[in-house]
Amino acid sequence: MTGFLQPYFEYGGEWWPLLAEAMLNTALLSVAGFFLSVVLGLPLLLCQMSGSVVLRGFAALYVTTVRGVPLLAILFLLYFGLPGVGITFNAFTAAILGLSLCFAAQVSELFRAGLKAIPKGQREAALAAGFTPAQCFTFIILPQVVRVILSPMIVTFVSLLKDSSLASLITVNELVLTGRAMATEYFLPLQIYIAVGLCYFMIGWPFSVLSRRLSAPAAR
Fold first, then answer.
1. Coil, strand, or helix at residue 185?
2. Is the per-residue pLDDT at 49 higher than 70?
3. Is the pTM of this model over 0.85?
4. pLDDT value at position 164?
5. How many helices and strands, by DSSP H and E, does the chain display?
6. Confidence band (pLDDT; 50, 70, 90) for 217?
7. DSSP for 85-145?
8. Tens digits of per-residue pLDDT, 148-207?
9. 99 within 8 A of 33, measured Cβ to Cβ
10. Nearest to residue 59, comparing CAs of 69, 68, 48, 51?
11. Distance in angstroms (rounded) separating the CA atoms of residues 70 and 21
12. What percentage of the chain carries pLDDT values higher than 90?
């Protein structure tokens, strides 16, 4: 056991700055990807609620298609495929777009499930009180939906955080790519990848705890 832990004491001063920078990149990538997935998920929800058959069909097709395609394939398409038609993104931007396009489908489904959990009488009461349909959705329905889906949204963010490791395959300097480079340099893959796993745990664990605490009142 002492021999296993020795590299952490011997090289910790060199490893920690590298892992800290990678943790920051991973956190920025995850937060940006999740924020954009919410921004894209809301219009998808509105399309699903639309009276237009075309918009509902588009939303259904998007959700079905994206949820059936691996995230890695989307990342490769954005980073390696689009330059073939003259559209180029740097690795970090391509990773954010890939994560957001993939998780927007999941976010829109969460919003839709939350919307179904709100009694229809809420909308009818708001319209009877003089609210327009847009005001009713914005000020009455949406805040309640957010409260209902907050816990599963946090779980979705943690899932996105873990899936962000795939961005290493398009050269984003996040935790996995940094760990791979460190393992190649120091020839200590077991200790290094354990450290990488602990870094993911440190980022994701507080959100997991928060999700459980938010869902506990509902469970009771």
1. helix
2. yes
3. yes
4. 94
5. 9, 0
6. low
7. GT----HHHHHHHHHHHHHHHHHHHHHHHHHHTS-HHHHHHHHHTT--HHHIIIIIIHHHH
8. 888 889 999 999 999 999 999 999 999 999 999 999 999 999 999 999 999 999 999 988
9. yes
10. 48
11. 28
12. 60
Rounded Cα gap, residues 220 and 211, in angstroms: 15
Assess contact for 112 and 56: CB atoms under 8 A: no
Residues 6+ apart with CB under 8 A from 21: 173, 178
**Ramachandran bin of 187, using left for φ above 0, alpha for ψ from -120 to 50, beta for the remaining angles:** left
Residues 6+ apart with CB under 8 A from 107: 37, 38, 40, 41, 44, 153, 156
Q: What is the CA radius of gyration of the chain?
A: 21
The gap from C-alpha 149 to its chain's centroid, in whole angstroms, comes to 15
With a cut of 90, say whether residue 140 has pLDDT above it.
Answer: no
